Amino acid sequence: MLRMLVFTLLLLVVPNVVAAQDTRTFQDDTGRTVIIPSSPLRIASLHDIDVTIPLIELGITPIASHGRVGVDGKPYLRSGAILTGVDFGNSGMAFLGAVDIDLEALAEQKPDLIITAAGRPTPIATLEKIAPTVVIDPTRFGTAHAYRKLAELTGTENKLAILDQRYRAGIEELKTAIDTGNISVSVIQPLNGKINIYHTYRALGQVLRDAGFKFPKIIDDIPEGGRIEVSGERLPDVDADFIFDPYRSDTGGTSKQEIDAMEKVVPDFCSFLKACIAGHYIMVSREEAISNSYAAMALMTAVVKSAIAPRPGMR
Q1: Bridge partners for 229 per DSSP
Q2: What is the CA radius of gyration of the chain?
Q3: Which of 15, 96, 130, 298 is at a distance of 20 to 30 A from 262, taking alpha carbons?
């Protein structure tokens, strides 16, 4: 009750920053038309992977961001240090919380624009009491779409064009090195005692699709932006020439632990997969594989090329 009272009082004293600026309309990924500053100066991001890291790549450092809390109790941006070198400790960004957003801390930052991701728990109606709020949905519409929306919001279209040109050059080099159209790939994970699969697994999946690799029918049949969990009995359905398995490393996880988790789903799983028998079961760090960012896609392009390009002894 006391926190809600403090938050309400903050809303009463926070100046209306947007009212003093030129404004324009913007349609977000929920279909809402939002009145936003023409050139926002104080952006608060409510998702580290989907919003904060892309903004940093576009040359915009938010004044505040959602993040995670490490085992040492310190906040961090998931994948932030690896992909951008920017984190709370060296950027001046305020930490807004790991799961639930600290609305008091958000209001105290006096944002003129809030950008959140679809599916986040804080109600839009609550956020709009603090500042104009825009929702983006990279899971549904893809990384390229999310970057276009963020670049439009921040006037960084020229920076985006450079990032995209660099990425496209890498994809063309990958396609030169590998006959992608004649190679099948899968991305799978053990989860909740089942096999977790996406239509397009974030940065890794985007690289694989942009490069023209083939996917098993069970993966192609998933709606774009969707994912499913299947029982271990469906393991043969996800087999491919090469299989990628992203393991979580930011919380101290290892590829060995990921393999052990797959063993619990299907004991001796490797013996049932042609990719695994051939030595084509590739473990990759989830921190790079899962991020919606150009840095992550560049890293995944290099990983895929290194794993699949012909080499001596490859079967």
Answers
A1: 196
A2: 21
A3: 298
